[in-house]
Amino acid sequence: MDGLILFAHGARNPDWARPFEAIAARLRAAHPERPLALAYLELMQPDLATAAQALLTQGCTRVHILPMFLGASGHVRRDLPPRVQELAERHPQVQWLLHDAIGEQARVIDAMAAAVQDLISAAPAAGSPSR
Hints:
Blueprint: E1 2-8, H1 18-30, E2 36-40, H2 48-57, E3 62-67, H3 74-90, E4 95-98, H4 106-122
Parallel strand pairs: 1-2, 1-3, 3-4
C-alpha cells in the first residue's frame, strides 16, 4: 500500500502549519484509502521518522515523501536525503520515494503565476485609492 508524507519545515507558531493541514485534509477527503502524514524538519511534531512509523503501522510498503518547500533549499538538498536514507536502512522492505520540492512542480508554478496575475488584474488602477 502507498502512503504519503508531506514534509514541511516547521515553525514555533502553530498557525504557520494551517496551509499544510488544509492540503492534508483535502488529500484525505479525495483519497481516504491512502494513508497520509504531515512531518516537520524542526520545531513541530511529528518528525519524519515518527510520521514514517505511523504509515508503516498502517501497512504501507511504499512511501512518497513530498517536500512542501518552494524550492530545493539546503534543507531539501542536504538535510532531507540523509533522513530518507536512514529510513531506507531501518526499513529496507519499504520503498521510499523522495520527490522534488512542491514549488518546483510545473502545476504549482502555473498556479502561483495565475494567482499573481489574478491579484494584479484585480488591483485598482494607478492613481486609484488602494484597499
